[in-house]
Amino acid sequence: MESTFSALQKERSSHTGRKLKGAEVILEILKAEKVHTVFGYPGGAVIPIYDALYDYKDDLQHILVRHEQGAIHAAQGFSRSSKNIGVAIATSGPGATNLVTGLADAMIDSTPVVCITGQVYASLLGSDAFQEVDVINVTAPVTKWNCQVTDAEDIPKVLAKAFYIARSGRPGPVLVDITKNAQLQEIDFQGYEICNSIRSYHPKPRIKTEYIEQAALLINTAKRPFLLFGQGVIIGQAEEELKELIEKTGIPAASTALGLGAISTEHPLYVGMLGMHGHYAPNKLTNDCDVIIAVGMRFDDRVTGKLDQYAKQAKVVHLDIDLAEIDKNVKADVPVLGNCKETLPLLTQILDENSHDEWLNQFKELRNEENEEVVKKELNPTTEELTMGEVLKYLNQLTDGEYIICTDVGQHQMISCRYAEFKTSKRNVTSGGLGTMGFGLPAAVGAKMANPDKHVICIAGDGGFQMNIQELGTIAQFGIGVKMIILNNSFLGMVRQWQELFHDKRYSFVDITSPDFSAVAEAYGIKGKQVKERAFLKSSLEEMLNTDGAYLLEIKVGKENNVFPMVPQGCSVSEIRLK
Amino acid sequence: MNKQEYTISVFTENQVGLLTKIAMVFSRRGINIESLNVSPTEIEGISRFTIVVEVSQETVRKVSRQIQKLVEVIKVYYNTNDEIVWQELALFKIETNVVSEKFYVERILRQYGATIVSVRNDYTVFTIVGHHEEIDRFLEILEPHGLIEFIRSGRVAVIKSNEGFHKKLSALEKMAYQ
Predict the structure, then answer these.
(1) Is A494 a catalytic residue?
(2) How far is Cα B165 from Cα A95, in angstroms, rounded to an integer?
(3) Does residue A180 carry a catalytic annotation?
(4) How far apart are CA B16 and CA A366, in angstroms?
(5) How far apart, in whole angstroms, are the C-alpha atoms of residue A442 and residue A81?
(6) At what angle do helices A2-13 and A22-32 cross, to 10 degrees?
(7) Rounded distance, CA A288 to CA A282, Å?
(8) Is A197 within 8 Å of chain B by CB?
């Protein structure tokens, strides 16, 4: 019966001009937008969508998460690790509010996500009906755009706008809230038109050549130019264009945490990661350069440190697609608005071929200093305790850097960003701007769904992993081959580090007990293991990578190891500490 | 940087919920809105928000760029007072016997160009139009003479140098469809 009905349904939905329920229209649109995977959780206000999904099983894979926060982080992981867009479905009220953290995370990290939430019947709106929340106002500050639909006739045009807005310009999360009556209402579906323009919305700013020329003049005459790149390069798919620019001009380039991989970490002109726990040289020399070329990055306070002491000596050329980012934190002497995929080649074309060997050597010298003081100890420790860095060292060796890592938030995240080798972009999925603990595991679920043939490794701390540990159930149910590494230091490590350094070691509520993680994994039917000794570390990682399907490896690391270098909060970037 | 009064003119699609989104841009940054008016424009389906704030030039520029980012916002302008022509409207409810019996009240009303809107046995409603300070002054003078109720509108303003929004809109539409 089921297959017959499904076949009938397919026949019906492939014809436009037939009566379809609003819920079916939603799924037709998802198909038309080339969505093949959705993450969600059913509930009363989305039952019509789930009823329709029953007939669309062959076209749309639905992953039942264990919490709506898991759904949106999975959708984010899906988007961030692929060229496709992540979609999450949640019911009204608590289902919708559980998306808020992920929306805020996606908003600040410019991640395209489309969320569809159910809403009570339109006739009940504003009456405090069961599971009713004013989701439009609740999510307004954390969405690029949101809209409520109360009439099924509006579903096609609103969803078309939603996908267009989420993907275009500076991407971001959108939310479409659809009342239950609209999901049930039958309409004459006349086909679906993809949206390509909106009168009030101009995602691609007009490029002004005079600014490109001014930028070139500054860069050509600079003695110590320094290029900073962020996720804008990855979003704009401008990795090659950026490489061409630095190779022609010989300008040293550093990445933000979200820009990692846009240029291979092995590239001779790549000088490391910026920011509070970034590399020594790029932070220190920010206050020595004469021209900063910022590409697709937003001068986050974790990157700039104390703003009034940030690169005061330098002229700033800022390339960004978002006008609101220009002069927001750091004043730009030359603003180059536009998609860097287009602006970078225009700039490269008129830049002189150059080299800055002496300047680049300054970075290398400081890099050597950092290697001696920090990196060697982290990667080749002489202490009995395992370090987080050596885990990354072996991962790099065992995978040849061919992996996607989805990190949670904390010390392990900074260690991963510092020591992971990225040859290409879209390999580092991490919560940057919002710093969302609990992000890593569900994001890895999404990344693995988007990249079934790649190693997807979730690296989490013992604290963050417990924030969305229930997603082990999702991994088990759908056989998602995510590898999970928990770097367990029995502390909320980053807070503990701050308490140690800035609050006289007053460790207030940062020691956290954890379950036997591998036993928890095994309870879900997922293979797991714990490792405490260095002798077994590499072989355990090997076993994890060679095991088919999901695997959880808990690694006990030093309790009070710190992440260095560090720019203490409120300090200038050049005051970065090596210990 | 010195604070001064800025009038922000926001042209938007006529969309439910946009008022909240625009207001949030200010509230998130702790900026108090001195005056707010929303009205239709000469173009069907396009609304105009006139928002008065007292902030620095840097802040008004940043806030305007954030408002411009909202999907339904077509165009944002910000102007100082010397760049706009603006008015506010106020209604005053005064006891009718005061107006009819006290000749100096009548003189004040005349002097400020107050117009009668409604007359009843117990009270009369007058209106005046002017700058904020003019209405303030009128209120101050009238208050001791049986003022029952007073209300004023937000600022409405047109930009002196602007040719109107028609031309700008057609240019923007071309950009959107490029």
Answers:
(1) yes
(2) 42
(3) yes
(4) 56
(5) 13
(6) 70
(7) 10
(8) yes
Q: Please tell me the distance from the alpha carbon of residue A53 to that of residue A139, in angstroms, as a whole number.
A: 26
Give dist(CA A172, CA A257) in Å, integer. 18
B168 touches chain A (CB under 8 A): no
Mean pLDDT, chain B, rounded, equals: 91
User: In B, which residues are within 8 Å of A324 by CB distance?
Assistant: 62, 65-66, 68-69
For chain B, how are helix, strand and coil distributed in percent, rounded to 5? Answer: 35, 40, 20
| Strand B147-152, strand A61-64: pairing | unpaired
Beta bridge partners of A270: A253
**Residue A191 φ then ψ, to 5°:** 95, 175
Residues 6+ apart with CB under 8 A from A571: A305, A306
Least confident segment among A15-29, A368-382, A518-532 = A15-29
Give dist(CA B66, CA A462) in Å, integer.
38
Gap between the Cα atoms of B24 and A208, Å rounded: 31
Choosing from A131, A214, A237, A530, which is the catalytic residue?
A131
Q: Would you tell me how many other CB atoms lie within 10 Å of the CB of residue B147?
A: 16
Q: Which residues of chain B neighbour A140 with C-beta distances below 8 Å?
A: 17, 20-21, 24
List the alpha helices (DSSP H) in A154-263: 155-167, 180-184, 209-221, 231-235, 239-249
Select from A387, A226, A409 the least CA-distant residue to A302: A409
- Other CB atoms closer than 10 Å to residue A69's CB: what's the count? 27
**Residue A44 and residue A101 in contact, taking contact as beta carbons nearer than 8 Å:** no
* Residue B153 DSSP label: P
User: Cα separation of A424 and B21, whole Å?
Assistant: 38
Q: Nearest residue on chain B to A143, judged by CA atoms?
A: B70
Q: Which two structure tokens, joined as six digits, stand for B95?
A: 């006891």
Distance between CA atoms of B144 and A230, rounded to whole angstroms? Answer: 64
In this structure, are residues A363 and A252 in contact, taking their beta carbons and an 8 Å threshold?
Answer: yes
Ordered alpha helix ranges (H), B18-164: 18-28, 57-69, 96-101, 103-111, 132-142
- CA gap A354, B32 in Å, rounded: 51
Residue among B71, B172, B177 whose CB faces A145 most closely: B71
Compare all CA atoms of chain B with the CA of A165 and give the residue at the minimum distance.
B71
Contact A323 B65 (CB under 8 A): yes
Whether the Cβ atoms of residue A459 and residue A417 lie closer than 8 Å to each other: no
User: What is the rounded CA–CA span in Å between residue A67 and residue A52?
Assistant: 21
Cβ-defined contact of B13 to A199 (cutoff 8 Å): yes
CA A407 to chain centroid, in Å, comes to 9
Q: What is the three-class DSSP state of B96?
A: helix
Tell me the nearest-neighbour CA distance from B105 into chain A, angstroms: 48
How confident is the model over B43-80, as pLDDT tens digits?
899 999 999 999 999 999 999 999 999 999 999 999 99
Chain A residue with CA closest to B10: the answer is: A200
Do A72 and A41 contact (CB within 8 A), yes or no? Answer: no
Contact A165 B66 (CB under 8 A): no
Is there a contact between B71 and A201 if contact means CB atoms under 8 Å apart?
A: yes
Decide if B68 and A198 are in contact by the 8 Å CB cutoff: no
Residue B65 has its nearest CB partner, among A198, A200, A324, at A324
Please confirm, yes or no, whether A266 is among the known catalytic residues: no
CA distance A231 to A228: 11
pLDDT tens digits, A218-254: 999 999 999 999 999 999 999 999 999 999 999 999 9
Structure tokens at A199: 């009168």
What stretches of A39-169 show up as alpha helix (H) in DSSP?
Answer: 47-53, 68-80, 94-97, 100-108, 135-139, 155-167
**pLDDT tens per residue, range A289-333:** 999 999 999 999 999 999 999 999 999 999 999 999 999 999 999
Chain-centre distance of CA A403, in angstroms? 15
pLDDT at A17: 60
Q: Rg of the Cα trace of chain B?
A: 20
